[in-house]
Design goal:
Distance between the termini: 19 Å
Mean pLDDT: 87
Oligomer: single chain
Number of strands: 36
CATH architecture of the largest domain: 7 Propeller
Strand content: over 45%
Strand order of the largest sheet: 2-26-25-24-23
Number of domains: 2
Structural class: mainly beta
């Protein structure tokens, strides 16, 4: 019997602390931050939806403040916050229309009623009437332009009717026929897929839809017993999706489970990185989507410069053992020194990073697939193969003899981003020249090796 041994070099989150890379506390905002927002066409304008009272998204039955504090605004890139809007309301999201940038939507709560407020002049004035008003709470908003019309979706919490969609600026709101509570909703940037976190304490799932949420595909093998907090579809490969998960104990306490990855558009899932941490939110740079940040609870802020396929932790200056709940990368030009991020720390307020730069080198860039080594050469017993990948994905491994005959094949082998290695047992094969072929979604690597008895 031929034996195959696979040893993956797992992704390790590096705690990349340097003297030049750290976080600074920003004054002028409340301690509990629900969302950080910056209009893409006004990048120096930073808006922080915050409150003096907590809304703990980890609770199974979320308690909301009776009266909120609206949002605070900065027009000088987050240096000072002076302007207050939507006083007495709790604000959980602010979203800018893709079709008409002057239209902004705010997911709000006032007393015991939640819904959406509309501004047609970029937040200077807001409608008095709450759209989609109900006792439930809309939490996150997203949209996509379809046939020149903007289609809006929203995730709702503390309800079994947790998905709302509208094709007329939330004037009329429709509920999904599928019973679900959800904390995250996201359109893919490169396909017609819509993803929704099917949020349950005993059966987590990421639902996906090809018709904008009217019907859902529900399979999510690998997320059993987990709860989905956040979703990030890949901006370069429509098959790849990340989600942040936790699980709930009998008494309702949250245990972070890190980031899970799907390589088949959300059908099956496996652990990726960040074990022990809740991943509350993902954020991409508006113009450079290879720059990704994740709000990772007590693990701080995880940062990637290769589309979320390798993360490093940047926490120098953040309060220890405090939970980062939300992140935002403003639409600022990147520089040789790096890029900046805003983070909301639960009960600690707003923090702004200095320029951050990851340690990812050229061997981990998107276009660089490599077989690093095959050893020993010649082989007699165990052959070790080292490879480098720009992002996590499945692989098919094939081995051919010198006549071109396929003598070995193994499919759906999962590799992490960066360097991986695996061993192949060559003891049952005769002396001679052989070829190994590694086949990925969009790349084939091959190399020769020799077996000598």
């Amino acid at each position: 019997m031929k034996k195959f041994m696979l040893v993956g070099v797992l992704l390790i989150i590096a705690n990349s602390l340097s003297f030049a890379q750290y976080w600074i506390k920003v004054d002028g905002v409340n301690p509990y931050i629900n969302k950080i927002f910056s209009p893409t066409d006004e990048p120096d304008r930073i808006i922080v939806a915050s409150s003096g009272f907590p809304t703990d998204i980890l609770q199974k039955n979320i308690e909301f403040p009776f009266i909120g504090n609206g949002y605070q605004e900065s027009v000088d890139s987050g240096k000072t916050f002076t302007k207050y809007q939507l006083n007495e309301r709790s604000v959980y999201d602010i979203y800018q229309s893709k079709k008409n940038p002057n239209k902004w939507f705010a997911a709000v709560r006032h007393f015991t009623r939640g819904g959406v407020l509309l501004s047609t002049n970029r937040g200077e004035d807001w409608s008095e009437d709450i759209l989609c008003e109900s006792s439930n709470q809309l939490y996150r908003i997203s949209s996509k332009i379809i046939n020149e019309n903007e289609f809006f979706v929203a995730a709702a919490i503390n309800t079994s009717e947790g998905f709302v969609y509208s094709d007329n600026d939330f004037i009329t709101c429709n509920l999904s026929s599928y019973s679900v509570e959800t904390r995250s909703v996201a359109f893919s940037k490169i396909s017609n897929l819509l993803f929704l976190s099917g949020d349950a304490s005993s059966q987590g799932r990421v639902l996906r839809s090809y018709d904008n949420g009217r019907t859902w595909i529900r399979e999510s093998s690998g997320l059993e017993g987990l709860r989905v907090l956040s979703i990030l579809p890949s901006s370069i490969n429509s098959s790849i999706v990340l989600c942040g998960v936790d699980s709930l104990t009998v008494d309702g306490s949250s245990i972070g489970k890190g980031i899970y990855i799907s390589l088949d558009t959300g059908n099956t899932w496996q652990y990726f990185t960040g074990a022990g941490n809740q991943i509350f939110e993902f954020a991409e740079h508006p113009r450079f989507p290879h720059l990704v940040a994740a709000a990772a609870g007590n693990a701080g802020v995880l940062v990637s410069s290769i589309y979320g396929h390798y993360f490093e932790a940047f926490n120098n200056g953040l309060p220890e053992n405090k939970s980062v709940r939300t992140v935002m990368i403003p639409n600022w030009d990147t520089a040789e020194a790096g890029f900046m991020i805003f983070a909301g720390v639960h009960n600690e307020g707003l923090f702004k990073s200095t320029y951050l730069k990851t340690s990812v080198n050229d061997s981990q860039r998107q276009s660089d697939f490599k077989i690093l080594s095959i050893s020993p050469q010649p082989a007699n017993d165990i052959l070790n193969v080292r490879i480098n990948l720009p992002y996590a994905q499945n692989c098919t491994i094939k081995i051919f003899n010198s006549f071109g005959q396929e003598i070995y094949k193994l499919t759906n082998v999962f590799f992490n981003a960066g360097e991986n290695s695996f061993d192949w047992n060559a003891t049952d094969y005769q002396s001679g020249l052989y070829f190994i072929q590694l086949q990925f979604d969009n790349q084939i690597l091959s190399e020769k090796f020799v077996i000598r008895r």
